[in-house]
Design goal:
Number of helices: 2
CATH topology: L,D-transpeptidase catalytic domain-like
Number of domains: 1
Distance between the termini: 11 Å
Strand content: 35-45%
Structural class: mainly beta
Length: 193
Amino acid sequence: MATALAGCSSDGAIRLFSNDYGARTDAGYNLPAIPIYKVDRKYHRQVVRYQTDEKPGTIIVDTSQKFLYFIMEDDKAMRYGIGVGREGFEWKGTARVALKREWPVWTPPAEMIRRQPELAKFRGGMDPGLTNALGARALYLFNKGGDSGYRLHGTPEWASIGKAMSSGCIRLLNQDIIDLYNRAEIGAKVIVR
């Protein structure tokens, strides 16, 4: 059982990264600045105290609190605000990071196209870019049955962080998914609660 512990500030942050959401160029794409002052401070990337028996490098997703924790040494974790699956699209379980992609192509699954026929134009894939649904990075989650169809990915929709609006994937701010991508290794355990 994991427990977040109070840290050096009233919200548990040991170190807050609110200044890391400015504009930047990444692989030729000009990522715009996020108006981070409009995002609840608890969803800003931060190092927090987090006690768990899981080993460093594990990713724990707390869907009810809308946080993703990247487990670090010494009872600490990097915590990111996330957007999660809307009602009827939530999921829980254990998976692993099988693939990592920078500026990935997004291909909506057939069942999503049936629900949203306007997505049929992307049946062959949506090119990478600033409006791509997977954002700047994606970590592909596989379980015992193979590709789960779920991803940890960036989003251009910064206002969706802290909300339940996706079709089941876990969304992070583009600047946060770049940070997580650089930390997470292929094979990393992912626990979604």
